[in-house]
Amino acid sequence: RWVTPIDTILNMHKSMLQLNMFLIVAFSLTNWEVNCQSTPNVSYPLVMIPGTAGCQAFAILKNDPDQKPLPVWLNLKFFAFIKHFTEYFKLQYDAKTGQSYDADGVDIIFPGWGETWSIENLDETPNMFSEYFGALVYVLRKDPFYVSNFTMRGAPYDFRKAPNENVKFFDKLKGLIEETYINAKQRPIVLLPHSMGCLYALWFLKKCDIQWKKKYIKSVVFSSCPFGGSVKTVKVEASGDNFGVFLRSPLSFRHVQRSMPSLTFLFPDSRLWPPSEPLITTPTTNYSSADYERFFNDINYTVGYRMWTDTHSLVDGLEMPTGIDDIHCIHGSNLSTTDRIAYDAPSLFYNRFPDQVPLLIPGDGDGTVSIRSLEYCRNWPGVKYYILPGAEHVHILSDIRHINIVLKILNANITHG
Questions:
Q1: What range does the domain containing 298 cover?
Q2: Phi and psi of 223, rounded to 5°?
Q3: Is this prediction's pTM over 0.85?
Q4: pLDDT band at residue 415, thresholds of 50, 70 and 90?
């Protein structure tokens, strides 16, 4: 057969292609660990940040140092003995310093840093009613890559406080992420914050430089995030919340709940709840997002206004984080959610405002946070947005739809129905 110039050119081209393919394969193999983001079957490590009341808490009694730490959150027996719960768990606020402290005679600790047990189930004796991240952790353990306190981490913190008081959280979380990155053979992590944990994540990401975020964080998954706050927090500040325990009045828990600066940290943002829209109505006056000082004066808790001024501008929940290439936003909808709070005039049957159980005027949301706050992330360019109708604020973490989304983002090697 005659070898034409065209044959020569084609053979040279074929040889070059083979050489290129060899070099590409060799380069990929030698750089697999460093460049694992481009490898389709690689699972990514996970760091979870819980929200309000989202991790176990224990009390150390100073007058009895030999006693083992006493579980206080979540401890169902304290719903029967509320006085003890309040004595242990309340904070004392110093208006001069803007700092809050544990009650006299007790130290409250939030153990399990880096581990998952304290956020899997909120009760020391796990049960279905207090499950939190447990379902997700259970599924992930089916992939041998995911090991608690190694490639699957929890970041518990004192959820009673806003970020300005949890100053060590930033350095601890940064170190945890870097450690997890190394544990996972230099694979960047997926950050999964829930509820108020999302605002902590935004606060953290704002403080980190772009180069660090590009290296260590693959994705951020905001779950049930109150980007613009929640009306429910105003109701809790005024009249308390009974955590769904119907045998107890919400007023029973108000004292301890009011002592937590994280409550005012989550007050509705005036950019989403304008001054023209009342949050609370009474027979004599209304309160909007422009009336927080008057509100706290009228409920006779002026220190609450100081807490709000200290915390409300710590994090701009409406501002998209920079330096993160892959942002996801997941929340529930179509559940009755407090949108306005109405109080009756005092009578034989009703105490004076705010010492009564008010009427809760519902709107759309996830049962805790209104839809306008949850969905604000839709305004961020490039965000991957998921809405799960019927998914409740906390139980969304156990929702198979939510779990499947997270598994896909993690690229977890799990097959399940």
A1: 111-410
A2: -115, 125
A3: yes
A4: low
Hey, CA dihedral for 355, 338, 342, 349, is it positive or negative? negative
Question: Measured between alpha carbons, how far is residue 188 from residues 200, 218, 230 in Å?
Answer: 20, 5, 32
pLDDT digits (tens, 9 = 90+) for 27-86: 333 333 333 344 558 999 999 999 999 999 999 999 987 889 999 999 988 877 888 899
By CB neighbour count within 10 A (0-12 exposed, 13-18 middle, 19+ buried), where does 220 fall? buried
CA 116 to chain CA centroid, Å, is 15
Kind plus residue range of the DSSP H or E element containing 49: strand 46-49
- State how far the Cα of 85 lies from the Cα of 240, in Å rounded to an integer: 15
In a domain? residue 36? no
| Helical segments of 231-357, H only | 231-239, 254-258, 261-265, 292-298, 302-311
Span 361-383, pLDDT tens digits: 999 999 999 999 999 999 999 99
Does 308 map to a domain?
yes
Question: What residues are annotated to the active site?
Answer: 195, 366, 393
Domain count, the chain: 1
Domain assignment of residue 362, yes or no: yes
CATH code for position 299: 3.40.50.1820
Structure tokens at 82: 């509320």
Q: Is residue 22 part of a domain?
A: no
Separation CA 342–CA 239 (nearest Å): 12
Nearest partner of 247 among 81, 386, 93, judged by Cα: 81
Strands 280-281 and 286-287: antiparallel
> Omega before 314 cis (within 30°)?
no
Torsional sign, CA 10, 12, 18, 20: negative
